[in-house]
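If you are new to this repository, start here. Below is one unmodified record pulled from the training split, so you can see the exact layout before writing a loader.
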Amino acid sequence: MDLKSLRELNAARAARRAAILLTKISDGSARVIREGDEVGGELDAAIAKAFRSGASGSVEADGKSWFLNVHLPPPRIVVIGAVHISQALAPMARIAGYDLEVIDPRTAFATSERFEGVSLHADWPETVLKERPLDAYCALVAVTHDPKIDDFPLKAALDAGCFYVGALGSRKTHAKRVERLTALGASEAQIARIAAPIGLDIGAASPAEIAVAVMAQIIGAFRSRGLAGRGGDA
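And here is the target side for that same chain:
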């Protein structure tokens, strides 16, 4: 790998942006493709698929052989609310290969005893997200049922283009949430991205079942990034 490509990949990694080192196998020439760059030709579809899957490999496109070395930021789940659903979701995320952290200013809930081994912030989302901002490789899960805690991170997630934004609550609860987010400046298109009620519709009832539904929906959203017309059930 040449020094220029290495610097570009390191810069993308530092900024939590996805990139592919695209190498022409015939002569070894290489360049860095960032997610969202237009390449043209048959390579466009192959590159888009590689960004979704995260899998490196060789492809045939435009009459040439290429190797795609894919570099994706680790997907991060930010859970707002140290509740029973969060307790069940944490080990599932770990098994699926997702980093997870929990934010909740309510110190009675946000305790190390309840969330052993989990990155836990007993503080307001406004404070935590200022130091650890959201990005396109984050999923935001809001489960406190408290607008004073949930609304700010939901708006921040929409503005950051998080690949998944979900919020717990009934349709009636969500209708009121829509009014508040609209007042905060969220657009209709942004609000339409929120999965609410949260999770795939599998008839989940217990906190653990809801966590399964949420984790499945997050995985679906992550793997379908960039596919127009696809999205998780809300």
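Two things worth knowing about this chain: Residues 124 and 223 are 30 Å apart (CA to CA). The first strand starts at residue 19 and ends at 24.
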